[in-house]
């Protein structure tokens, strides 16, 4: 099982680089707060312009090599300070299973569980450039040239054109290409040896590059960008420099039917006159302006919850969603982006719930509180709540003029309170005077950040009221500062990437309890509070607080490992190999690379030890 959702929540909650939800119109963040730059959304998962591997090489050297290593062996100078191994992108046994679109998603969204941040500083095209370069790390010029020779001799013009389709190629791994060469539709390499087939697949990958490692005989065909999956409408799509092809009259295929279903879990029949609205959006010539609503249609929902909008104009790339209002809550479907060559479209189901205003049914799965001493006159308090709704009803939470969320109470005497939803939170539903929280799934809690300040003093008394039951409590206190309280357990000092803090845990708490403790002392030099986070609110809440997120995630790792009563199976990370035979193949491959002088001794020994451990588990 991967790291518990509490770890993921703690890290991603601090990384509030994107917050698509406002808790309520009258709930405001602290004074001076600056809304962070949103994380780039995923548009069509293929590049509109052919990736430039030379540009990708430069980006890789700056952004990726410090962890992944120059040759992609996971041996970069920063890898030793991480608590987990770094993916060896340059190994064939890893690279040949990877589709470019998969790696593009990881670079865009990050992998906080592996302590990899999202690379929001890179444009979409730059991410495609660096992903494409990373996919060449396991190849050699000799293999590419050998593959080109075989390809030219056996693949005709129509065959070559197929492999120049950027959308198709972005979704294919090297293993997928090998299968197409050997046994797929139009297979042309049934007589190739395994080594020859791999070389041809490596060469084929270069056909969609702007500066391929070997010059292709057939120039890549120009493809019109087509969205590969539905997503929130955003100006940030994969076309370079924000450009996106406009829908022209020639691109309109015609009309179609858009249907869907309402899953009624309210416990009552649907109103006979319940209306559902279909909204259509398109990007204009200026992608930075965002999508514009160009269509609004209404129809009545059938008694069984089904609905259909007939004869709707459905040009390629138009974005649709459906929404319905019931009992004061407006529900929405996920977004649908029109693809060509079909006239029947199905929206994702919308689940309708009964409602309750009894927020006592909610449960706090985890509470992490961080104390930042960087400011001269006060201490910043950042409380990260992971909240679940285990019922079958949507909980309505009313927020009054006090701007407080009723089930979150911060210590008495604090000022500058503010709230935000975390990036990876389950979706809240905004209401005019608060918000709604539908039932949660086990792996998708609601994430809330509560921010406040308290005057700095030699001794600070904290009385933290608890409104809802809290299963897990963790305090992160800069080393040098001591927390004392009857329910606290000091798990000792912990260093993470040069930052030092003490980790405290508390027993689980019941509704109505209070966490009482005092903070005394001052941070020691070399702790995580040398820079004043409050001087840059984007740094505090946004991507610049990655260090804090890593500290919190590292703290959870440390604390988790110290809990002997936990099920050890929960602490194991997913194995990347399916069976022992796959691990043995990987060991043989890395031995060959080491004998050929392509891997340093240090990287070889580290990777081989990891593979041997994996083999023991398979045995």
Report on this model:
The protein has helices at residues 5-14, 53-68, 92-95, 100-109, 124-134, 141-154, 157-162, 166-170, 174-182, 194-206, 537-541, 546-562, 568-571, 580-595, 601-618; strands at 255-265, 275-283, 291-300, 306-313, 319-326, 329-332, 336-337, 344-346, 350-356, 363-372, 378-388, 393-398, 415-421, 429-431, 434-437, 446-455, 459-465, 473-478, 481-484, 488-496, 499-506, 514-521. The protein starts with a helix and ends with a helix. The chain has 5 domains: 5-35 and 357-552, no CATH class; 53-134, Cytochrome Bc1 Complex, Chain D, domain 2, CATH 1.10.760.10; 141-206; 240-347, Immunoglobulins (Immunoglobulin-like), CATH 2.60.40; 580-618, no CATH class. Strands 1, 4, 8, 9, 12, 14 and 15 form a 7-stranded mixed beta sheet that branches. A 7-stranded mixed beta sheet has the order 13-16-11-10-18-21-20, with helices on one face. The longest helix is centred in the C-terminal third of the chain and has 18 residues, at 601-618. The relative contact order is 0.13. The protein is an alpha+beta fold. Strand 5 (319-326) and strand 6 (329-332) form a beta hairpin. It is built from 15 helices and 22 strands. Residues 1-41, 212-253 and 528-574 have low confidence and may be disordered. Helix 1 (5-14) runs antiparallel to helix 12 (546-562) and helix 14 packs antiparallel against helix 15.
